[in-house]
Design goal:
Blueprint: E1 2-6, E2 10-12, E3 15-17, E4 22-33, E5 40-45, E6 50-52, H1 54-60, E7 61-63, H2 70-99
Antiparallel strand pairs: 1-4, 1-7, 2-3, 4-5, 5-6
């Protein structure tokens, strides 16, 4: 069995389905041909009991399922923002720890202010 996705809205089985829905389609071991039709049905939609020809399968379905790129892109963007903010925070914390023991240079008290005038 292989998963196929519906291309256009239409009937699958006895109900109308929308594009993007996924169906399991099985290839028959022996094709079915009715006396009044020249078509050979080689596929069946599992659970819907609809027979398909190779031509109708290619027109109505695409193999596989749709995979959206949006969640992957959003996750990547959020990860980049998170790492940027984390590096900012870690950098400031490191700078604060390194500067805690610094001696503050003060104006030398050996000289009086009057000497500077």
């Amino acid at each position: 069995m292989t998963e196929y996705m519906l291309k256009q809205p239409g009937h699958v089985g006895d109900s109308i389905r929308i594009p993007g829905e996924v169906f399991e389609i099985k290839k028959l071991k022996h094709s079915i041909q009715f006396k009044d039709k020249d078509e050979k049905f080689k596929y069946i939609v599992v659970g819907k009991d609809e027979l398909l020809t190779t031509k109708s399968l290619k027109e109505r379905f695409t193999k596989g399922t749709y995979k959206s790129e949006t969640p992957k892109r959003i996750t990547k963007t959020l990860l980049i923002i998170f790492l940027y903010e984390l590096s900012k925070y870690v950098t400031t914390e490191i700078l604060i720890k390194l500067e805690t023991n610094d001696v503050v240079d003060t104006f030398p008290t050996d000289y009086e202010i009057s000497k500077w005038r």
